[in-house]
Input
Amino acid sequence: MILVLLILLILGGIKMNKETLEQVKENLSSKPVDQIKKAIISFDKDLAEESLSLALESKIDSLEIFAAITDVMKTVGYNFEQRNIFLPELISASDTMQFIVPKLEEEILKSGKKREVLGTIVIGTVLGDLHTIGKQMVSTLLRANGFEVVDLGIDISAVKFIDAIKKNKADILAMSALLTTTAYEQKNVMEALEKENLRDSVKVMVGGGAVTKDFADTIGADGYDSTAPGSVRLAIELMKK
Ligand code: B12
Output
């Protein structure tokens, strides 16, 4: 339990690395986790697969690997914002990361002990938004921590969210938005929930790069967190309310 808490604290406290990708590469060791990072910033899927296998064979905790790839992806994002790299590189790095995330997800789920389901969560990235990585991390960690997760994917309309909430009798709706423009779609979904008289039966948590605590409060969401591990703590709290 203490180990789990420690990991959550480490994951929650990851700071953005403001190095260039060249500087990051120079500082990487030959250890498997560093090689996974190298693979992402060199867009090398073979190296990604090989070093992920090595890391797992060496019994490195899947959550530690998850933290490392989140960290390196944030650095990629920073370099994109600084115009050190451009869209093709951004897509290639994200493709490489996407290539290993499902394999890692499998490991994380395998390591989760069978237990009572804590609650049912419908999750998706909102309409008009195709960013999937953060949402996928949130859904993986929620699953690994004992929630039943119905992951609708990306570009999800209010109607689809509502249908899934009704069909699965969801306790929580989790929405992700990475674009300033699509963050407002979360407000539309909140209004749709009211119209459908679902607002009292489902708790809503929001997140993603374009969302802040203030924004979440403004649209009347029940909770916000800026990290995937934080989303687990939040979901557990919301289930108690
Ligand atoms: C990778 C990426 C892409 C990839 C996405 C690939 C994929 N399959 O997901 C591609 C190349 C396709 C892409 C496209 C675009 N992107 Co883009 N992208 C990024 C980038 C670099 C990283 C996003 C990411 O994966 N981050 C890593 C994950 C782990 O972080 P995260 O999603 O925020 O999730 C974490 C938390 O937020 C939280 N979380 C996430 N969801 C939820 C949900 C809940 C409920 C909770 C509690 C928590 C939570 O947990 C996660 C883990 O800790 C960001 C830059 C950045 N700094 O984030 C830009 C960025 C988001 N993109 C941006 C833009 C503008 C675009 C494009 C319009 C094109 C363009 N000009 O770049 C298109 C839009 C496409 C669309 N319609 O969605 C802008 C958005 C600006 C804004 N504020 O509106 C950013 C910020 C870059 C920038 N500064 O210009 N993008």
